[in-house]
Amino acid sequence: MKPLIYDFSLEELQQWAKDNGEPAFRGGQIFDWLYVKRVNDFESMSNLSKTLRAKLTEQFSINALTEITKLESKDGTVKFLFGLHDDHAIETVIMKHNYGNSVCVTTQVGCRIGCTFCASTLGGLKRDLTAGEIVAQVVRSQQILDARGERVSSIVIMGTGEPFENYDATMRFLRLMIHEKGLNIGQRHITVSTSGIVPNIYKFAEEDTQINLAISIHAPNDALRSKLMPVNRRYPFDDVIESLRYYQAKTGRRISFEYALIGGVNDQPEHAKELAGVLKTMLCHVNLIPVNHVPERKYVRTSRNDIFEFQRILADQGVNVTIRREQGHDIAAACGQLRAKHMELG
Prior knowledge:
2 domains, two-stranded antiparallel ribbon, elongated, alpha/beta, disordered C terminus, DNA polymerase, domain 1, ten-stranded mixed sheet, TIM Barrel, 12 strands, 20% strand
């Protein structure tokens, strides 16, 4: 398997050019063709010599993703199932908002975190994606939006997988996304979501970025969170909160908490009061997510009135809180529903 060219930084492409007897600026031209002109093959890089284009074709792959299926929601959300070089598949979602287009990317084939309300973890973890395979999801999304004269305005790393268990590839992906000579996505328009991999929350605090951090919390205490999220047994609730307080002290940035409301499980007034007690001293925002249907899971949605009551209790305690607007529910592209659907058919 030839290396994927999206795995390489601008500096690495410049070095590759020099190693192949070319001036370093050729690496910059290649980078421009990939991220600004967004071509799908090396032959289209018309300001490079035929010899250089042949070397690129010989040494690199440029096509990381093969479209298997495409589903469009009535709300404008588009979900893609992409095949990878090794017959695995991943899902990527483009969501249309009134402020622009957001792309939800996947960082792993499958997931081993084991959240009991989520479809992504049902088949376990198959492998990590490379940085280039994550990059390719955004580039492909931008190519699709190019046809409409639109652009990717934000990225959420909330697809299948735990980004902080694929930390190095995720950080390389982020650096490629924010590069001013590439797609140049604003750091504050990118959010990375973790289930609470404590060592890498500390590590992320030292990265000196403006990228947003979101935490899947889903419970106000250790016992309940361990039932819903087995990862809590490795990284207990109090340790997660402590690491987030360190992150906040280090960066001064607001943290988002994602809380899936599950009928009769974690949605009672006492849960809201306990959660408020933990979070009210933190600079944060809570995103309440009515749990989405997954056939293999028996959970039911919290009633509409109980959702608003949960929100009211948090707000009355001074916690910034909103209820997530649902998108892509009719095509199983909503939170907790992503999976490689074709795997079920095999």
